[in-house]
Design brief:
With 251 residues, the protein is an alpha/beta fold. Helices cover 50% and strands 11% of the residues. The chain is globular, with a radius of gyration of 18 Å. Bound molecules: iron/sulfur cluster (SF4).
Length: 251
Amino acid sequence: MKDAERLLRRKLLRGAGQAIADFGMIREGDRLMVCLSGGKDGYVLLDLLMDLQRRAPVRFELLAVNLDQGLPGFPGEVIPRYLVRLGVPFRVVRKDTWSIVKRTLDEAETPCALCSRLRRGILYNTAVEEGCTRIALGHHADDIIQTFLLNLFFEGTTRSLPPLWRTGDGRNTVIRPLAYCWETDIEAYAALKNYPVVSNDLCGITRPLERRRMRELVDGLQRKIPNVRRSILAALAGDRFGAAPEEPRDP
Ligand code: SF4
């Protein structure tokens, strides 16, 4: 492993380890369902959890899960091929939710809310079927800050993406071990690792406009106020990332 890769890995492991400890994300005997959509965040999450699994004082299991939603041109073989090579237990769930989204919405509506609601429902049911006690998602610190700002500006709430969150019906617990990891580090590490990243605009929707604007806003602030990201994240962590009675909007 080259120096740059080793340093980045250490930094990401430190962030993930700290978040897991701060929020009690993993307990002895837990079975974690690690969600991979083909984006860099999921690959990095799985990589770090496999490393932590070897060294952590608690024993836990991992099951990687990829949901193939039937997006046009989705290369369904890419993620399973990688997971076989990695030697990690995995399951691919195929449900053509994209047809439902297309049938239900007219062209003017943004499909993301329905699309992610359907995805969540399938993943939550899969976790129950597989006996997984925790669902690990790859949202990172920048996702958390952007979601907080979106909710603040557009919804009038201070909710964000909680690092540990139990669904209202008590069936599932969601964890976000990358809550203290920055997107730039994840991107740089993913580039060095050369993960088989699947394009995230197969549906024709690029990152929602409001989220891009929040990203630009934080980037602009960061240029004027060094450490502003850290300050926002620290404030959110102190507030336990806002109380979240229901799953907040997805990034
Ligand atoms: S960007 Fe595409 S795949 Fe993602 S939630 Fe929106 S419609 Fe679904």
